[in-house]
Amino acid sequence: MIKQVDFFGQSFDTQRVQLDMFDRDTRLTFRKVDDFFCSLKPSEVERHKDYWNDKQPKNLIQQFQRFLFAFMSVHTSWQSNIVGYNAIKDWTKWFNDKDRLLQIIKDSRVGMYNRRSEFIHEFSKAFWKDPNIYVSKSNNVSWQGHRNNLASQIKGLQKAKTSFALEMLEPNQAEVFCADVHLYRMFGLNQTKDKRHYETIENHWLERSKTFSVPSYIARAIYWNRNQNQEICDYWAHVFN
Known about the structure:
Blueprint: E1 2-5, E2 11-14, H1 31-39, H2 42-55, H3 60-72, H4 78-88, H5 98-108, H6 113-129, H7 132-135, H8 143-153, H9 158-169, H10 181-186, H11 198-211, H12 216-227, H13 234-237
Antiparallel strand pairs: 1-2
Helix pairs in contact: 2-12, 3-6, 3-9, 4-5, 5-6, 8-9
């Protein structure tokens, strides 16, 4: 057990995980994650909180578009994600026209054309039939429970990208964790082989977020931006202007 001090001057105990809690061959480690949270600066946190407070969707159309962005983020780079999203964000051009949607996605060259268009077409019909299912969380349901319910209903997103959609819907409130390949590596894991540990690493991230009084997504955004040598998320999130 290691005694550390967070950037607000509050001491906490960092629990070092016992590897025999998991498979003997696991690489799971929390050290890099804990070191990252210790490195957060108040100014850095506040800058990201302010930025994402401004980017939080203001209406149903913007909320719907956050899901579209999540769909276009599956198995692609952030640069292609932007291109793909810009191609479909004006949903009035393709809504109820599956062939048109497929052609738009093909022209964007973002990949996974058939499956992506199928998933987006199906989701779009379901969303506008009852938007509250997707944009409202019941008070008696946890964020993770809400995410799991949505992930079981939305084809093509699964836990990670459903979490990403919720992070973009409520960036300073959502208590979920979009674990991409880089974050699995941060925990010493392989995303493909170690998916069974998703909620284990998510829970640790959420616990550290609470310890340091940093919204979960804000911490993740800072980690991602540091890796991209960026001060803020505007290099990709400008598409939400």
